Amino acid sequence: MSNPDSLAGQVVATDAGWRVPGIANLHSHAFQRAMAGLAEHQTNPEDSFWTWREIMYRFAARMTPESTYAVATQLYAEMLEAGYTRVCEFHYVHHQPDGTPYADPAAMSKALIAAARDTGIRMTLLPVLYMTGGFDGRELSARQRRFGHDVDGFLHLLDTLRPLQDDGLRVGCAFHSLRAVPEAAMREVLAALPPDAPVHIHIAEQVGEVQDCLALRNARPVEWLLREFPVDRRWTLVHATHLTPGETRGVAGSGATVAICPTTEANLGDGLFPLRDFLQAGGRWGIGSDSHVSVSPVEELRWLEYGQRLATRHRNIAVLPGSPSVGRTLLAGVLDSETDASGLPRDAQEGVWLDDDAPALAGASTEDLVDRWLFAGNRPLVRTVRVGGRDVVTGGRHVDRDAIAQRYGATVRQLLAD
Ligand SMILES: [Zn+2]
User: Fold this and answer.
1) Among 71, 263, 285, 306, which is least packed, fewest CB within 10 Å?
2) Single pTM value for the model
């Protein structure tokens, strides 16, 4: 269960302002930052996740290691400015557009690592195994080819990347989804992984994939995964939107983290995660900005709570016995899962300082500070962010903001012109 005590000593008044913990962003596809806002016009009265995916594929087809670096540095600088201090990068655009590996098969991974190092965010890189185009085992489509690996090629990529690990970089592993990775391949990869490597998977985001899984495996995705694999604290289930009550209790009991991405799930029309039942079952969870239509832990946490209020017509849903503050309960929840989900231990020196002079925080106390940060207004309140002993955000701005934004602007104009 997320433990309200995990906030003890984490929200404190200092001479430099209110200090709060940095937040882990558990789910990111960096390249999608460049298409945020470009899929908001109707192409079809039945627009859904699946039509959005067509636009995303067209965009993914244009990315190179250079443009990936430019987009990711902008994104990670924005994350730091918003108070995220680590990111789990769910990385699946591995090869050239026709599926041929780059001269260095790890070139795209290394572009992301360079972006994290240059901006100062700590990263868990999750190279994604992507093998099939559906539960029936069909081949990848032409546009999915640059995502694909066989098991040997994938394990070789992990072996190439692991020696790069340090205090700011962890290399884990991701399975794109049950529809994209056959069971035997999952078993082979898990057997080859270091036992403590974080494992992430997209699971049950769409009703369509739940139905396909039921039709071909006679079980729902979460039900099947829990039955077939030893899911525990090293696992992060991304989205897990469509759960039965039994699956909700099953995930909670497994110790796995659910990565909830409220703004993306809203943007894509996915559905609403059963937060109240999951909290009551003692489930562990965190947040991700996923497609980056928003890069703000404030907005993710706020909408996580607001979605539940709209659905239940009640207020103050994300609370636990002994933890009546919604903001503190939410913050304690994300802190509780971050180390297992990211595989990166917390750094005692790391922190985020909020703007003491902001009207939104006038007269704040330790008890109400987090509620006010998360639920009052839209002005960013983050002033200073320290990661790895370095102040990477000062005065609310990333230290390299201007140069990063200039390169990003040129890159996006080029991507849109191609
Ligand atoms: Zn995702």
Assistant:
1) 306
2) 0.97
The residues assigned a catalytic role are 239, 290
d(CA 414, CA 392): 28
* Integer CA distances (angstroms), 81 to 102, 155, 217, 383, 401, in order: 33, 34, 44, 8, 10
Q: How far apart are CA 361 and CA 67, in angstroms?
A: 39
Cα 91 to middle of ligand 1, angstroms: 9
pLDDT per position as a tens digit, 158-194:
999 999 999 999 999 999 999 999 999 999 999 999 9
8 vs 349: CA distance, rounded Å: 16
275-323, pLDDT tens digit by residue?
A: 999 999 999 999 999 999 999 999 999 999 999 999 999 999 999 999 9
Q: Six-digit token pair at 243?
A: 């759960």
Residue 355 CA, ligand 1 centroid: distance in Å: 32
Closest CA to 241 of 269, 213, 217, 280: 269
CA of residue 28 to ligand 1 center, whole Å: 7
Phi, psi of 262 (to 5 degrees): -60, -40
CA 301 → CA 12, 172, 229, 270, distances in Å?
20, 25, 30, 17
In angstroms, the CA 201 to CA 126 distance is: 10
**DSSP β-ladder status, 84-91 and 122-129:** parallel
Sheet containing 382-387: give its strands across.
12-14, 17-20, 351-354, 382-387, 390-394, 397-398
Using DSSP bridges, classify how beta strands 235-239 and 23-28 pair: parallel, antiparallel or unpaired.
unpaired
Cα 359 to ligand 1 centroid, rounded to whole Å: 36
Report residue 233 as tokens.
């604290």
Q: 252 CA distance to ligand 1 centroid (A)?
A: 21
Between CA 171 and CA 88, with CA 383 as vertex, the angle to 5 degrees is 15
